[in-house]
Amino acid sequence: MMSNLKGTTAERLAQHRELRLFSQIQGPLKSLTFFRRSLLLAELSLIAYLSPEEGAPAAARIGFPGHMYFEQKGAQAYWFDNRWDAVIICRGTEPCDWNDIRANVNLWMEVAETVGKVHRGFKREMDRLWPRLEKALLRNRKPLWFAGHSLGGAMATICAGRCKLSYIKSNPEELYTYGSPRVGNQRYVQFTRLRHHRWVNNNDVVPTVPPTWLGYRHCGHEWYLNFQGQLRKLNWSGRLLDNWRGLWESLQIRRFDFVADHSMLDYIAAIEALCRAEEGQLSEPLPAEMVESILPIPKNETSGIPLSVPSLDEYSGIIHDEVFRRSA
Fold first, then answer.
1. Domains along the chain with CATH numbers
2. Helical H runs in the chain?
3. Measured between alpha carbons, how far is 95 from 154 in angstroms, rounded to an integer?
4. From the CA atom positions of the chain, what is the Rg in Å?
5. Using one digit for the tens of pLDDT, what is the confidence trace for 208-235?
6. What pTM did the predictor assign?
7. Residue 57 preceded by cis peptide, ω within 30
């Protein structure tokens, strides 16, 4: 998805000093379509880059008034909840944070708590937060969702895997990651089976690391956005051509595609367009083969979800297509 804006997600947020939110949740997350759910969790992943003073009001505006903020030695995560669901969002890479840089470059693997091996840096980031997160998870009685962008996606993957395979009763409903790097080896990926939706934006360089020759593998179902921000399922040659087209387009506007495509804002713009296409608001329909490949939540998991939900007076801050202006 091309845009003229430059810089990392955090830098672009700082430039604009405002955060436009498209989601409106007035019921369980399971009641949303897949694309709407992807959009909402993408927006929460973006909100995770904000401080608690800014992030909590923004999350409340899209329907998650409850929050907890976890921080330990540079590792950060949010817990957002409402009357129906709880969501754990791990914060992505801060380019000026030495702790995040150190986590990303610490490429060696070490044994996971489950089976197989995982990236040492990502694991140690989650290890810092796990004692406090574990206490919150033990108290949870709501359906639980995980999401994250960049390093946050890797941390969310490890956290969701621990949660599923541990004694904790709250099992992850689904995991959504955006521009996430590879996390573990083949044995870890095969053993830690999650309902994982992994979004990749064209030339985003982060999903290409760590390299496969070190034994790393991706997990989850990939949703690939081409250089125009459209959802496509391409073979290796089609993917290579699409990468080159995206690179060429970016050079025309002096944009470094490998970094710019990693922006959470670009992921949100593309997924929001997919929502509008699905709902008939755009002229170009979604490719049938992509719609058919969506992994549905089993019917027995959606039983009891109302087709309509009552208005939420106490959540009067929820405004569709809201612009939340950051404090000075």
1. 9-296 (3.40.50.1820)
2. 9-16, 34-47, 52-61, 98-105, 120-139, 151-165, 186-191, 236-252, 257-260, 264-278, 288-292, 299-302
3. 16
4. 19
5. 999 999 999 999 999 999 999 999 999 9
6. 0.82
7. no
